[in-house]
Every structure is written in structure tokens, then in C-alpha cells.
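Lab channel / #folding
Pinned by the channel admin:
"Please post every new chain as: sequence first, then the C-alpha cells as a reply. Keep commentary short and put observations after the output so the thread stays searchable."

First post following the new format, from NK:
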Amino acid sequence: MAEKPLNTLARLIGRSRGFSLVLVVIDQPAQRGRFVGDLTDLFGTALPAIWFVETTPDPVPELLAAARNLPHAPAILVFGLESWMSERTAQNEPFWARLNDAREVLIRNVHCPLIFVVTGFLHDAFARAAPDLFSGASAVLRVPRKQKSKLSKMLWLRFPRWAGLDLDAKRTELLELTGQAWFLPEARLQQVELLWWLGQEQEAWSLASDLVSELEPGSLKNEALVKQLLVSHEEPELLYSRTNGLRSQFLKSEDPRWLFETACLVCEIHRDWGNRDVARRFLAALHSANFPEMSPERARMTLLSAILYLDGGDFRSSRDELSIARKITTEFYGPRHPLSLEVDYVMALVAEFEGKFSDARRELSRILELWLALVPVGHRSTRVLKAMERRLLTPPGGRSLAELE
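Reply from TO:
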């Protein structure tokens, strides 16, 4: 966290003699952990925090309970507002309405600063949807964005059922499903998957959204909701809020299939944000589900684990996990299937990170030779592979591969 906002916040907390509202705007999730660490270092102890992790129409009781239980706290941090927010504009959100109406109640019952840690889009939603409370904020502090550490882009493949078909077969299947789609929602759900694999992501998202609107609550609607997320191009903060909210719903209903899908997606989002520790916690929760050792779910979890080891620079552990994942995907899908090739791609990344550029380039060439018969050139996963190919052909500093190795 930049020093100026941190010092300003410390002064506000130190001078406070009762309730005040402070908004700290942090757009990069990885910076939130550093923000908490910096505050802990500054005060010599961790400030108490509330995390909203499940959908709730009324946050006020939890805020008041925290104030009662922490009468001598120098301040209370509030995180996770995005976990329940279903609309980006925050229109018709009872959460905001209750928060907005609670200004006087908070002033009377909370006797220390209440610090809401929010993203930029939540700040804007707060200003629109809870103007009475927002207008009384003592300060709005913005933490400057830091240049993100570069994480390798992942393929994050979906829908293994169709993945192994060549392009012509995928197109044929899509045409056949089109004839059934007008009366079978199951056929339309399969169309979503095929459209995604054919690189028609906007069409896939639109179809999934139509199904979400049309279907009655039940297993088919749950499937449509998850597939809408899996093909979404929404910005990460909003995608995270929708995914985490749906995950909470599946936790209550104990729907294991879609709980697994949403938990994996939350893990992927945190990984791409650079929140490796948070991603590991979600992954540990997935492992507690005790999937069979030789199952597609276990392969996906093991691949996620390998990616997190790679991000942390533990290449040996990453390779070990990839060997396990490759054994499982080969058994279930075959060695030429995209989900097996996805594991090989991460293995090529490990070789690149180790400086074994010739090995990485050789492995990637093999992957692409198989890949382009199965996946369109314009597909986002193909673009990731082609970007790596260009990178390997132009090593850092313009030196030859032999010189680098």
C-alpha cells in the first residue's frame, strides 16, 4: 500500500473519538492482503475485520454485533461487499437500502471508525445506492494501483464432453442440436458448450443468459447459471461476486456438482488476481470433498495445485503434480484430448521458467500441431498458446536459445 493513504488512515484512526465512516478503494485484490499487513505492522496488532462471504439482505445486525463484541477496538475493517452484490448498478439491492437507512443507528452504536475496503466499482455503487451514508464519510482513500507481477496466462478449459471432437465434428454437432433446441432446454445447454469451443463466446453467453431468464428454479437452471459464469467475459470483480454468491447458494443446497464448478472458478479467479494463498484455501476445501484418486475432478484439482506451485517458483512440486494430472487425463480423455494438452501446456511453462527454452518450444510445437485440428485459431485458449509460441521464438534480450541455455 502506498505510504500516504496508509498514514492518512492511521491519523484518522488515532484521532477518532467515536463513529466515522472511511472508504478505502483498492482495485487490485492482491493489494488487500498487503493493506491488512501494513495496518497490522503500524498498530502492532491485527485490526478486527468483518468478511461478508454469503448473500445477505441486511448487513446491519452483523455490524452492530461486531461493535458490541469489540467495544475497545481502534477500528473495524469491512471486506467482501462484492460477495452478495448481484447487479453492478446495485439497483434494487436490499443490502444497500438497509445500509443507507442505518446511518443514525451506526452513529449511536458503533464507537470507532468503520473502514469499508472496496473496489472502484463498489465505491461507485456505494455512492449511488447508499447516498445518505456515503455522504457522511470522513474520508475516501484511494490506494494507487501497482504494476501486477506477471502471471502466465492459463487456458482454463471447460466442457470436456465436446473438447476432443475435431472442428468439423463440433460444427456438425452444433447444427444437429439447433434442430432440437426450440423445445429441449437440455439441447440449448449443450449448444452453450459447443459455441464456447467454437470460439463464439458472446453467442454462448447470450444463450446461457436467455436460459437463466426462462428456466424455472431447479437443476437445469442451476446448470444454466454455472455455464453463464463459465463463458462470461465480465470484468473479474463482478464475475467473482456472481460466482461466490452462487457458490454460497450451492453450499446451502448441497449440490456437489455445481458447488465444485463454482469453487474451481473462484479458485481460478483468485489465482489470476495473484491471491495465491486464497486460491490455496479454496483448493484445500475442494480436496476435503474426497473425490476418487482417478477422477476428472481430481485431475482438475491437481492441475490447479501445479499451477499454484509454478506461480510460487516450486517447479519440482509443479512437475510432480502435473505428472499425476496427466496420468488421470490420459486415462479419462486420451493423450490428444485438449484437457490432456492443457496439462502439457503447463509443463511447457515449467520448462520455460526453468530456462529450458528448447524443451518448452518443442513441447509447445507438439501441442499446437494437435490443438489446431480441435480448436479454432480465434479461440481464447489458442491465442494464449500462440502468444507463448511468439515469446519462445523471441527470448528475453534477443539472445539465441543456445546462449540462454
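NK: The first strand starts at residue 20 and ends at 25.
TO: also worth noting, Strands lie at 20-25, 49-51, 76-79, 113-118, 139-142.
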